Amino acid sequence: MNSNAAFLKKLVDINCVKFGDFTLKSGKQSPFYVDLRNIVSYPDLLAELSGFFKHHLNGNVQRICGVPYAALPMATAISLHTGIPMLIKRKETKNYGTKKVLEGEFNKGDKVVVIEDVITSGESLVETIRELENEGLIVEQILVVLDREQGGTKRLKDKGYNITPLFSISSLLQTLHAENFIDSEVVNKVAAFLAENNNIIPDKTDGIKQLAKAHHNPIAQKLLDIAHSKKSNLIASVDLTKSNDILHFLNKVGHGICAAKLHIDIVEDFSEGFISELKSIADRHRFLIIEDRKFADIGNTQLLQLSKGIFNISSWADMVTIHLISGEAALKAIQQWDNNNKPALIPIVEMSSEGALTDKAYAEKCKSFMFNYPEVIGAVCQTENIASGWLKFTPGVNLSTAGDGKGQQYNTPLHVIENLRSDFLIIGRGLYLAEDPETELDKYLSEARKSSLFS
Ligand code: 5IU
Quick check: helix, strand or coil at residue 243? Predict the structure, then answer.
């Protein structure tokens, strides 16, 4: 018996691979079951496995990262075997604010190998990779113990990743059958199952659904739910100055946006009637309202600006933008504010305009405290990465990247999604100045839907 066959046989012996009738999480019946976690009870097997991994490892890999939990001991074994340092990716960062996504030392640009136990649709690997890349790591290689041959490996390859499964279910069957450990009936049953389930398409929007469920803030949950059901992460920035123009425009594009962003102080004919019409359009088309007020004063003044004056912003805005220039105390004042109608806060960490003073050091300072406040749901930024689970909103988005001659700098939707890794795209003149905003909206939507929020 060769070493592969002996190893695979041992996996069956210790119940990591079972044949029979199993009900999967999806409710589907499966003739086999794989769970490699039990391998931790067999250090000799773990050591053998790390030998297989080492054989496939690229020479230039600088860090090893296992996907929790099953692959963590595997990554540790490889690290001990090769001397390559390991990183631990936290599983639970989403609800933990400022806690680190990764434990262990690394530099941006380090090449990492991701270790996974089993790949099915590839969904969880896609999420892990995204988080590693958000931290500045380069995913050089992905090594997986067992490919269930249900579409995941192809999915990762199509995305351009170098992924190698050590074994596949078919090779496992063949090997075990050749050694007479399983009979033809089992082989045929599994083969029939694989033929029927060779391309599990993960629910395209499962990621965003999960994100919505896990989010600490109900307004963010609502925004994500809307984005999920409309499959749109577009926010229309409606910088029109007449209330009828605003309402008319939103009636046209409302079906394809998850939020409308306003500057209420530029509306020439503001009235309470305008707000009630705005809200009814928002209800009808299911989108939220952001007031881009960019609060930037001391705590007490901000509370007055939020709730007093003719605009009474907190009575209608779901979200507001806020500068953190006055420091943490101003956020704390909003946190301690006794008001049932508190809008969610979107701090401005970086601005899109040429020569903006929001540099790296400023962004770091903002990020050092803003996630401690439950009202904060994410940030407005350009290049900065936002802690996993918080939302990244990016303005300065246009299909044409020529500036506006007044300092605005534009990026294309695809650049913003793929390179800046933003969750929500804020489009102003690109939409409301278009001759036919609805047709233009479709163009933006088809780009915006390439976001990993929907994949
Ligand atoms: N906006 C920016 N950049 C920023 C921030 C806000 O453009 O950094 I903070 C606002 C200004 C305007 C909208 O209301 O987003 C962008 O409109 P255009 O797409 O028309 O440039």
Answer: helix
Ligand 1 pocket residue status of 290, Cβ below 6 Å? no
Q: What is the pLDDT along the chain (455 residues), one digit of tens a residue?
A: 678 889 999 999 999 999 998 887 666 788 998 999 999 999 999 999 999 999 999 999 999 999 888 899 999 999 999 999 999 988 764 444 446 788 899 999 999 999 999 998 787 788 788 888 888 899 999 999 999 988 889 888 988 899 999 999 988 988 888 888 888 888 888 888 888 877 654 444 456 777 777 788 999 999 999 999 999 999 999 999 999 999 999 999 999 999 999 999 999 999 999 999 999 999 999 999 999 999 999 999 999 999 999 999 999 999 999 999 999 999 999 999 998 889 999 999 999 999 999 999 999 999 999 999 999 999 999 998 887 778 999 999 999 989 899 999 999 999 999 889 899 999 999 999 999 999 999 999 999 998 888 86
Taking the model in full, what pTM does it have?
Answer: 0.62
User: Ligand 1 pocket, 358 CB below 6 A?
Assistant: no
Say which residue the tokens 């995204």 belong to.
Answer: 130
Q: Which two structure tokens, joined as six digits, stand for 63?
A: 């860090």
Q: Is 237 in the pocket of ligand 1 (CB under 6 A)?
A: yes
Show the tokens assigned to 42.
Answer: 């067999």
Architecture per CATH, domain 207-454, reads as Alpha-Beta Barrel (3.20)
Atom of ligand 1 nearest to the CA of 433: 20
CATH class of 3-196: alpha beta
Q: How many angstroms does the Cα of residue 395 sit away from the middle of ligand 1?
A: 5
User: Looking at 209, 252, 294, 332, which residue is catalytic?
Assistant: 294
Between the CA of 333 and the centroid of ligand 1 the distance, in Å, is 26
Angle between helices 71-82 and 43-56 (to 10 degrees): 70
The domain ranges of the chain are 3-196, 207-454
Q: Which helix (H) or strand (E) holds 2?
A: none
Pick from 263, 211, 207, 163: which is nearest to 390 by CA? 211
